[in-house]
Specification:
The protein is α/β, with parallel strands linked by helices. The chain has one domain: STAS domain (Transcription Regulator spoIIAA, 2-Layer Sandwich), CATH 3.30.750.24. Helix content is 33%, strand content 30%. It has three helices and five strands; from the N terminus they run ββαβαβαβ. The protein has helices at residues 26-36, 55-68, 79-88; strands spanning 6-11, 16-24, 43-53, 73-75, 95-97. Strands 1-2-3-4-5 form a five-stranded mixed β-sheet. The termini are far apart.
């Protein structure tokens, strides 16, 4: 199935990029939590291939902030994802990056 959920982790010199694919729902979020709980900040979530995020996905992003006290960076989030994160209040606990090849400081 081409719409299968997947998670890729790429460690860069000064940050880690988590590339997600599919729907960030209960299943993907459940698989993501044990992986990101071991990843020290800074972290970038690349959401280019994520079509939709549920409340479960929003909780994972918020949980990362609560665990480390550092805002994760969201890259390539579509407008519906940003809207959901705004509605849930999670948008206050993330940094939005434009389509940049490297991470920048706040």
């Amino acid at each position: 199935m081409s719409n299968e959920n997947s998670i890729r982790i790429a460690r860069q010199a000064d940050h880690t990029v988590i590339t997600l694919q599919g729907v960030m729902d209960q299943e993907l979020s459940g698989n993501l939590v044990p992986l990101i709980s071991k990843v020290a900040p800074p972290i970038v979530f690349d959401l280019r291939q994520v079509s939709y995020i549920t409340a479960a996905g929003s909780r994972v992003i918020l949980g990362y902030y609560q665990s480390f006290g550092v805002k994760p960076v969201l890259r390539n989030a579509n407008p519906s994802i940003i809207e959901l994160l705004d509605l849930t209040g999670t948008l206050n606990y993330v940094s939005l990056a434009e389509d940049e090849p490297t991470m920048t400081a706040n």
